[in-house]
Request: fold
Amino acid sequence: MCDLIHYRVEGGLALIGLNRAPVNALDRSLRVALIDACERAAADITVGAVVLYGAQGLFSAGADIKEFGTEACFAEPNLPGALTRLSAIHKPLVAAIGTLALGGGLELALACGYRIGAPGARLGLSEINLGLLPGAGGTQRLPRLIGAESALNLILSGEQIDAERARMLGILDRIAASAEQLLDEARAYANELIDSCAPARPVEAWPKPAEDLPDDFLARYRVEHEPRWKSRLAPRLVLCALEAACLLPMKEGLVRELTLFKQAEASRQSRALRHVFLAEREAQRTPSIVPADALRKIDKVAVIGAGTLGGGIAMSFADVGIPVALMDLDGRTLDRGLRRVRENYQLSVKRRKLTAIQMQQRMELLFGTLDYADLFDADLIIEAVCEKMETKQQVFLALEKVCKPGAILATNTSSLDIAALAATISRSQDVIGLHFFSPANVMRLVEIVRCQATAPDVVASVVDIARRIGKLPVISGNGAGSIGNRMLEPYAREAHRLVLEGATPVQVDAVLTSLDLNMGVFSMLDLAGIDVSFLMRDANREAIAHDQSYCCLSEELYALGRYGQKTGRGFYLYEGRNRTVDGEIGTLAEQLARELNVPRRSIEDLEIHDRCLFMMINEGIQLLDEGIAQRASDIDLVWINGYGFPAHLGGPMHYAEQLGLDTVLSRIHHYRHALGEYGEMWFRPAALLERLVAAGKTRIEKF
Ligand code: T1G
Reply:
């Protein structure tokens, strides 16, 4: 037997261990070995039952994601076929689930008649996160086991559930006393089954789930949930598969499921989500980083600035048990900041996301102070004061006097030159950018901005701490706006210019949300604050001085004190979070267009799509060429996790690759000519884009 499978027969039991590191992904080689082992046990008259387990503790993370899009994915024996052969074995198969059974891994367990799990096991059909649906029987076997509604919710959420919930649902028959005792208890369970002459109990024999459902259940489910699915394909295919489970015999249901699965696997959306999955793993691989034992210890953190962002950052650390000092020079701001943190936690308790004890524990980790001296023993200090260079320099000068040697000094700036800030003090090797996104205790993304002077162990230590607080760290070089905000500038510039030329904020935002972006650019600017984007522009005035029309609408709103949601008026009018059209924006745009001699005309949706997205994409390719971003997939992660770009489009770089780099380039050239002087000013293709297209390249990579 090959080393992918551990096989031994002891006391009438065949013990079959999956052994394909790191996660027993069920690629073709493991599928072949698994079937061989199970059918060998089936044929062995000395074997009364079979126990399947993960040789390294982890049961299986499912189908091999790297096989998707290749022939190997459906090569015989494909996974659904393999599991049907297993479920046909006339001996009890017991699945012993150690740490994890996800996707095809859980489907493998469902193809067994019996399941026992370790107390810490996590189970789930997570295919939806990859734009897929369970394709190896999950949509047919799970509903028969736990009922259609529970199965539907589990498959559509893609969530991982714990062992206790899995037992309550009926997925697990038993939970072992401990992970260490799992295999022994699985063997005992198998022996009980032999002693009681228990049948194989394949789920196939269980009744169709439809019996307990009102006839119009699935139809009503679709109506209720479809709006939230936006243009996502996979949830709709899941519903079709569940319909088959309710209406068709198992054999036909499996055929229907495989057809739907192939449709999902071939879809652009799934390709995009698989790209995102691998991109997240790739982002974890940061070259030239120091070994784990050379990381700087971070057990105590301080946050300077008790505003909304500062409070959210502090919560991110308290949430994982790290003590945090929240400091502000103004007593009322500090009180307000601490109160806002407490209110946020109270809301989580009210929503049962947190217990009152957990809230108390977190609040006890938070310590408010008005005195820099109290930060003497902090390992990491994050400055989150207003976006003004002078203010931030004063903070760093004060920190230099009190912070211990080796403490990491981070700035949360979203637009300023961090090297210039670091040059204010004598320990620039300890200075780094740690750019959180609001609300910082919720948003997953952290841009880690390293400067030439930043010490490698500082970069490695903040990447590590970002992961410890559950964030997705993406490394960026130092430049105005790093990755995300730098690309936001041309995106917002074009949106503004289009309104000047005749479009409306509603039209522009509708084009962007029709792509499933969480929100349009004008709604986003109103949420983030017209004053915040004004300060960012202010920090780089010389770069935009040659264009009078540059975001002039926002400049006007700023001058009128209309900062968006926080002032009840910006590009839209706001009653609380309720947004309505502000007719005055059109008048303002006409007036500014007249003053700036900008001709007005009706604007097509395609032009809005192209100008906003292609200028943002062009900037992304430019900053990749400059080395600000290490890889195109990092840029995708920034926009998906920081700016609400839909993951099922794969991020702006992947989206450009799907559209075709030659198409993106030719459209940029088109507008360069069509928009006259303005086009000449801004629609300059990135050199890397031109090189890639000239070389016939279809992927965005350094070249
Ligand atoms: N296939 C191939 N490689 C995988 C993999 C998989 N399913 N899961 C993980 N890896 C690799 C990953 O790329 C990384 O590799 C290493 O394992 C460690 O992963 C027919 C269609 C399991 C919870 O959705 O959620 O079954 O970067 O860094 O944080 O119905 O990985 O080191 O080279 O993420 O501890 C459904 C996906 C597949 C599970 C571990 N399965 N994986 O997290 O480590 S579709 C999933 C995860 C399917 C069937 C269908 C996580 C994890 P490298 P890691 P981790």
Q: What stands out?
A: The pocket of (2S,3S)-3-hydroxy-2-methylbutanoyl-COA is lined by residues 22-23, 25, 61-66, 79, 100, 102-104, 107, 126-127, 129-130, 132, 134-136, 138, 281 (CB under 6 Å). The chain has 30 helices and 19 strands.
